[in-house]
């Protein structure tokens, strides 16, 4: 049986020489991996493009207090980044200590999401999954064991409140049940789920793309900040039409870069860094996600490519992309033609309706449409806003270059 493999969050500078020339913003907090835990089947060394000393990939995702930033240590940015890293570390440590005290050593909180690949800002929540050591592949078909108490998010929420956490709220009926809370000692907010590890695998994949393009994480922050400024970064806000999640924007950006030739398709690489599967249960439906990707270590962007700018990204989404006939798919290498009869998983996970919405942005692991709730009026507003911003940048003569390739 294959065992699940996840890339450790390694120091950014260790993995790519090109990153040494990049000066991160104060929100660029890359966590150094701690000492790897013992594992029965460690994987052999993997060569990553530009690596100085190929790191060992382990079956763990470690989180350590150390940070590696190419910022002058006497600068204000360094102080801000160090404080942010310490607060995130202490938040995860307090959560882990509390869980182990009440539920035992089988459960371990692991961070995932944009805070782990550089696409976040200082105000971003920490996404956390609580690993269940007895269910590394999720709840597999035929597993009749009752779920342990920690899977009861209302019970865990009560534990949080009893131990002084604030703003505690649960979403037990969400597709992936979560607990939201704020740690009053660090003022950091967290979204916690129980053992849905797909977010960690997604994070490992997205981080590999950020390693291939040192400017990508910064560009993702630019795109998210702009979408937020025009009120189109609201995937599930009551009283407002659904618009783009930060995750959807990340997928759209990487797929755009793949389509234009600035990034490879890591999921098509046969030399795999990760090769496993996970059973995800949403409500009463369980689906198996096959997870595999590699580093594409021999890939290089074509020499004829000009520097990529935010203006090019804007023009693509208001002028070039065919919303009616095309689909955004990182797994397929960028942009693909939309089939006449899309597979059911493209729509709502509880629906057999083949009407998957005005725009289809596919999750690279589950192949679900991340934007099925977005209606035509919102897509039209998105295109209009892209066009307006593009013209504004053209008139100013500012193309907002955010990528560079040596």
Write the layout of secondary structure elements.
Layout: H1 12-15, H2 76-103, E1 107-112, E2 126-132, H3 153-162, E3 166-171, E4 178-183, E5 188-194, H4 198-212, H5 216-229, H6 246-260, E6 274-282, E7 285-293, H7 310-320, E8 326-329, E9 334-337, E10 361-362, H8 376-396
Parallel strand pairs: 2-5, 8-10
Antiparallel strand pairs: 1-2, 3-4, 4-5, 6-7, 8-9
Fold and architecture overview:
40% of the residues are buried. It is globular and about 60 Å long. With 406 residues, it is an alpha+beta fold. The protein has helices at residues 12-15, 76-103, 153-162, 198-212, 216-229, 246-260, 310-320, 376-396, and strands at residues 107-112, 126-132, 166-171, 178-183, 188-194, 274-282, 285-293, 326-329, 334-337, 361-362. The chain contains 8 helices and 10 strands. The strands form 3 sheets. A 5-stranded mixed beta sheet has the order 1-2-5-4-3, sandwiched between helices.
């Amino acid at each position: 049986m294959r065992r699940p493999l996840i890339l450790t969050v390694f120091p950014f500078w260790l993995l790519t020489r090109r990153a040494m020339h990049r000066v991160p913003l104060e929100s660029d907090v890359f966590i150094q991996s701690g000492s790897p835990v013992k594992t029965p089947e460690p994987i052999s060394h993997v060569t990553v493009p530009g690596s100085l000393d190929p790191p060992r990939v382990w079956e763990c995702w470690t989180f350590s207090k150390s940070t590696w930033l190419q910022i002058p240590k006497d600068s204000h940015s360094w102080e801000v980044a160090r404080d942010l890293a310490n607060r995130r570390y202490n938040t995860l440590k307090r959560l882990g200590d509390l869980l182990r005290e009440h539920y035992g050593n089988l459960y371990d909180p692991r961070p995932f999401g944009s805070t782990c690949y550089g696409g976040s800002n200082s105000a971003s929540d920490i996404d956390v999954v609580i690993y269940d050591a007895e269910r590394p592949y999720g709840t597999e078909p035929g597993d009749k064991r009752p779920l342990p108490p920690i899977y009861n998010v209302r019970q865990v929420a009560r534990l949080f409140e009893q131990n002084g956490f604030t703003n505690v709220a649960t979403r037990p009926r969400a597709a992936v049940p979560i607990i939201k809370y704020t740690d009053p000692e660090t003022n950091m907010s967290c979204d916690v789920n129980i053992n849905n590890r797909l977010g960690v695998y997604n994070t490992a994949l997205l981080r590999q793309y950020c390693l291939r393009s040192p400017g990508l994480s910064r560009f993702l922050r630019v795109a998210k900040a702009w979408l937020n400024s025009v009120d189109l970064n609201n995937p599930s806000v009551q009283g407002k039409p659904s618009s783009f999640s930060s995750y959807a924007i990340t997928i759209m950006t990487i797929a755009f870069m793949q389509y234009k030739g600035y990034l490879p398709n890591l999921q098509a690489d046969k030399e795999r860094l990760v090769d496993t599967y996970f059973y995800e249960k949403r409500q009463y439906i369980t689906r198996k996600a096959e997870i595999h990707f590699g580093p594409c270590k021999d890939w290089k962007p074509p020499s004829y490519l000009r520097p990529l700018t935010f203006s090019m990204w804007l023009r693509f989404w208001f002028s070039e992309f065919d919303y009616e006939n095309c689909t955004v798919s990182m797994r397929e290498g960028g942009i693909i033609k939309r089939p006449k009869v899309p597979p059911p998983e493209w729509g709502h996970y509880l629906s057999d309706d083949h009407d998957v919405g005005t725009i289809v942005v596919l999750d690279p692991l589950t192949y679900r449409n991340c934007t099925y709730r977005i209606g035509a009026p919102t897509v039209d507003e998105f295109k209009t806003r892209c066009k307006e911003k593009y013209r504004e940048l053209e008139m100013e003569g500012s193309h907002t270059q955010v990528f560079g390739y040596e």
